[in-house]
């Protein structure tokens, strides 16, 4: 947890269950900034949607975070907030969890991409 990653580039953040966070932390994404704010949130069974929403907004506001990964089950809990986030950075990636299978139809990025890439019907 050094300052070098802040100077060299941007961070990834994770909002997820314990297994998801531990996996990413073992992969080396863990960071604590000078204000002692971490770039991850472990969601427990008693964590409220308001707490997840607050954490998400805090990650979005941080200039050192470029990607926010969130388990789709928790993204569903704050869907309105996620759908309002339209900026490309930080990018929000919804990832599967053990509790719930991944649903392509709920993914905010894929919904936007589908709208952009929808085939245009040409008249001949």
UniProtKB/TrEMBL annotation:
Origin: domain of life: Eukaryota
Cellular component aspect of the GO annotation: proton-transporting V-type ATPase, V1 domain
Keywords for this protein: Hydrogen ion transport, Ion transport, Transport
A GO molecular-function annotation: proton-transporting ATPase activity, rotational mechanism
Xref: InterPro entries: ATPase_V1-cplx_f_g_su, ATPase_V1-cplx_fsu_euk, ATPase_V1_fsu_sf
Keyword Transport attached: yes
Keyword match Plastid: no
Family recorded in the similarity comment: Belongs to the V-ATPase F subunit family.
Assembly description: V-ATPase is a heteromultimeric enzyme made up of two complexes: the ATP-hydrolytic V1 complex and the proton translocation V0 complex. The V1 complex consists of three catalytic AB heterodimers that form a heterohexamer, three peripheral stalks each consisting of EG heterodimers, one central rotor including subunits D and F, and the regulatory subunits C and H. The proton translocation complex V0 consists of the proton transport subunit a, a ring of proteolipid subunits c9c'', rotary subunit d, subunits e and f, and the accessory subunits VhaAC45 and ATP6AP2.
Functional summary from the UniProt entry: Subunit of the V1 complex of vacuolar(H+)-ATPase (V-ATPase), a multisubunit enzyme composed of a peripheral complex (V1) that hydrolyzes ATP and a membrane integral complex (V0) that translocates protons. V-ATPase is responsible for acidifying and maintaining the pH of intracellular compartments and in some cell types, is targeted to the plasma membrane, where it is responsible for acidifying the extracellular environment.
UniProt-recorded name of the protein: V-type proton ATPase subunit F
Protein source organism: Drosophila virilis (Fruit fly)
Source organism phylogeny: Eukaryota, Metazoa, Ecdysozoa, Arthropoda, Hexapoda
